[in-house]
Amino acid sequence: MTEDPSSLPVDPPESLEAGAPEPEVLADNTGLSHVLRRVRWDKVGLFIVSLFLFILAINLMKEGARALAPLVRDVFDVNTPANALGFGWLFAYLILSGSPVAAAALAFFDAGVITQMETFTMITGSRLGASFIVLFIGFIYVIRGRDRSSGLSMGLLALLVAGTTHLAGLVLGVPLLQSGVLDGIQFGSGAALTSVVDVLFGPVTAFFRSFLPEWSLFIVGMVVIMGSFSLFDRCLPQMSIKESQVGRVSRMVYRPWVMFLLGAGVTMISMSVSVSLSILVPLSNRGFVRRENVIPYIMGANITTFIDTLLAAVLLSNHAAFTVVLVEMFTIALVSGIILLTFYRRYEHAMLVSVSWITQNSRNLAFFMIAIFAIPIILLLV
User: Is residue 48 part of a domain?
Assistant: First the structure.
């Protein structure tokens, strides 16, 4: 006798078995409301505030730059590209950051204080001085009892790689800038963006101008832009390296192009070469990366660090300033690409031998430290 199928017991669907959530709960856990609950709204708020302060700082520096012309031209005697190179270099040492100095160079250029070529060399100087923060952090590690060679290696590599690539880029960039080949490449919506900025930030800038001397607006802008970078650093996610991932990471760092792209990506996100390079010091001291593996990382970081400077040029709505930054990025990318594709192993060997010589004894280290301060001072005075 055949049983009626309708009388047979029916197994409950898998979604209704013991311990399984209801379909509605699953939908809720994977839906928009669940995503919104996972968003760190405090970090989103910090990002918005940091962006607001960055744009405000550019406007304040633009307003105050013209009043500082006598100080820059007569007191600091910035009248040649060599003077501007030394000025930007020392300025970055002073504030331990290159991006605010690069933005200041654009503000000076927009106000007619320095020429386009002087702007180009001042930005190059700011990038040469920006790597000093990595050496400074390494010095702190040495004071805390770390080995001098391991503590200072990353900072020295950052300075040497930045010095060689940016100086080579300077040689290529000067004729390229003079030729005007890249003048036609511009950010198309610059005018529309500037009009929005004027509407939103014009009243705030006018408020500061109503009770502060014009020259002090530049100083206020410098303080604000450094604060904006600090807030932006705080809104980045905290990264940790799990022990189970060390093997995978160690395999990746042996590939120069992987490290090159990683350095470019981290710096693009953080918009600060000081931040992206500074994390190399603790990673090196903990044995996660070796100094020979970070040279391509430093190269990549030195290219995308210009992203915030490029944004500053767009906010100023100055086509010539945009071209200066574009030439900087293009030449550094070209130099780095040539090194990686042709003679990277020889270049790597030269950098490592130089670092070993500098850290070999106190005399060599003292000579190097005197040199990196004496060269920009000489450039400023010639």
Answer: yes
Whether 95 maps to a domain, the answer reads yes
More confident residue, 24 or 375: 375
User: In angstroms, how far apart are the furthest CA atoms of the chain?
Assistant: 111
Do the domain assignments include residue 165? yes
DSSP 299-343: HHHHHHTTHHHHHHHHHHT-HHHHHHHHHHHHHHHHHHHHHHHTS
Cα distance between residue 378 and residue 369, in whole Å: 15
- In the chain, DSSP finds a helix count (H) and a strand count (E) of 20, 0
The whole-number pLDDT of residue 243 equals 40
Q: Please, are residues 262 and 303 in contact by the beta-carbon 8 Å criterion?
A: no
Domain of residue 192 covers 40-237+245-381
Domain membership of residue 12 (yes or no) is: no
Over the stretch 304-318, which tens digit does the pLDDT of each residue have?
A: 889 888 888 888 888
What pTM value is reported for the model? Answer: 0.77
pLDDT digits (tens, 9 = 90+) for 241-300: 444 344 444 555 567 888 888 888 877 776 666 666 666 655 665 556 667 778 898 899
Number of domains in the chain: 1
Distances (CA, A) of 359 to 156, 240, 289, 362: 9, 30, 19, 7
Taking each helix axis as running N to C, give the angle between helix 295-304 and helix 148-179, from 0 to 180 degrees, rounded to the nearest 10. 40
Q: Up-side HSE of residue 372: CA atoms within 13 Å toward CB?
A: 23
